[in-house]
Amino acid sequence: MPLTIVVKIGTSSLTQPETGLLALSTIASVAETLSQLRREGHRVILVSSGAVGVGCARLGLTERPKAIALKQAVAAVGQGRLMRVYDDLFTTLQQPIAQVLLTRSDLVQRSRYLNILNTFKELLELGVIPVVNENDTVAVEELKFGDNDTLSALVASLVKADWLFLLTDVDRLYTADPRSVPDASAIALVDSIEELNKLQVQTGTQGSQWGTGGMVTKISAARIATTAGVRTVITQGKYPRNIENILQGELIGTHFTPQPEPTSARKRWIAYGLVPAGKLYLDAGAIAAISQGGKSLLAAGIKTVEGQFDTQEAVQLCDSSGNEIARGLVNYSSDELQKIRGYHSREISTILGYVGAETVVHRDNLVLT
Ligand SMILES: Nc1ncnc2c1ncn2[C@@H]1O[C@H](COP(=O)(O)OP(=O)(O)O)[C@@H](O)[C@H]1O
Ligand SMILES: N[C@@H](CCC(=O)OP(=O)(O)O)C(=O)O
């Protein structure tokens, strides 16, 4: 049966750690593996990092730039180089590819989100392998994916992929960073992300010299993808051919089991496509009502309102310590909520002087995160 497969490869696999130069044999092996999957009839998307790393190598910079403008300029140099290499390799294998550069704001507006989906569908229908990256050169700090692990999970969720492969420079997830904790234990299967809390997995916040997020972003990518019903695997980029063995049932790397009942596309867009504009701190009753009772959020359960937002914007719903429990689209602006928080719904019209919605976040627009 043809599968939809998203493969993300990180800078740490695409470049040689000592020099920052391209790891040509790895890239060639990725091109061969993905072209073979295409020939077998699968639909394949490659999410490739490397614009900044390759740009640095091209310009002789010895470390990842921190200043935004420099990073954006370097990415512009590297992205072109990277695509040139991919196109040469894939063309040799008679496999057409396409460059798709996305920014976070492309997913925020529902019409643009659906537009991107249609473009992906068309490319896959044409037998093309889209090569996706964040459009680093125009991305603005407040509205960025920031890392390609998240981007790849959002793409996998958008196209309803069957598999997401996160190729990196370690063979799988461990209970702690194997670089600093050599006796950390390997984790082969994760049935739910909550298990990782129980195992007390330590992820650090640092990646390798050229990578960005380390394992933190890979785990949050696995959370997004598995919620969307996408089986996710963290495995080593040096051996892309393992992807075929994994598809044939071998348990290589760390596998994250997809949720049996994926959240609807609209709710996934609310949870992961939109960028929250504020926070609502809830009391215990409201938390129980939304998380266990599947109820809508009412004004009475809101203790504090943080941020400036308009009606129909996305907000985070948090416990008193600020831990996010859910996200949703609000029926009231932040100014209105400051006035009605803590009050019973029947009092809203008297306080505001007009009749508004009974709920602050209706359950159809609310998703547990
Ligand atoms: N619990 C963990 N298990 C495995 N690797 C970990 C863990 N915590 C941190 N890491 C680090 O994450 C790195 C991979 O992340 P990163 O460099 O961002 O890769 P990429 O460029 O592929 O995105 C590994 O080299 C490893 O040192
Ligand atoms: N868009 C950036 C990638 C950022 C990123 O997530 O890098 P990595 O951790 O190596 O996957 C680039 O192309 O350099």
TrEMBL record:
Principal place of residence: cytoplasm
Compartmental location: Cytoplasm
Gene name linked to the record: proB
The EC number(s) this enzyme carries: 2.7.2.11
The protein's enzyme class: transferase
General function of this protein: Catalyzes the transfer of a phosphate group to glutamate to form L-glutamate 5-phosphate.
Domain of life the protein comes from: Bacteria
Keyword Cytoplasm annotated: yes
Organism classification: Bacteria, Bacillati, Cyanobacteriota, Cyanophyceae, Nostocales
Residues that coordinate or bind ATP: K8, T168, D169, T212, G213, G214, M215, V216, T217, K218
Pfam families with a match to the protein in the record: AA_kinase (PF00696), PUA (PF01472)
Keywords: Amino-acid biosynthesis, ATP-binding, Cytoplasm, Kinase, Nucleotide-binding, Proline biosynthesis, Transferase
Family stated for the protein in its record: Belongs to the glutamate 5-kinase family.
Descriptive protein name: Glutamate 5-kinase
Pathway annotation from the record: Amino-acid biosynthesis; L-proline biosynthesis; L-glutamate 5-semialdehyde from L-glutamate: step 1/2
Residues holding substrate: S49, D136, N148
GO molecular function: ATP binding; glutamate 5-kinase activity; RNA binding
GO cellular component: cytosol
Species of the source: Hassallia byssoidea VB512170
Any one biological process term the GO annotation gives: L-proline biosynthetic process
Domain PUA span(s) in chain numbering: 278-361
PANTHER family in the cross-refs: GLUTAMATE 5-KINASE
Swiss-Prot/TrEMBL catalytic activity: L-glutamate + ATP = L-glutamyl 5-phosphate + ADP
Entry keyword Metal-binding: no
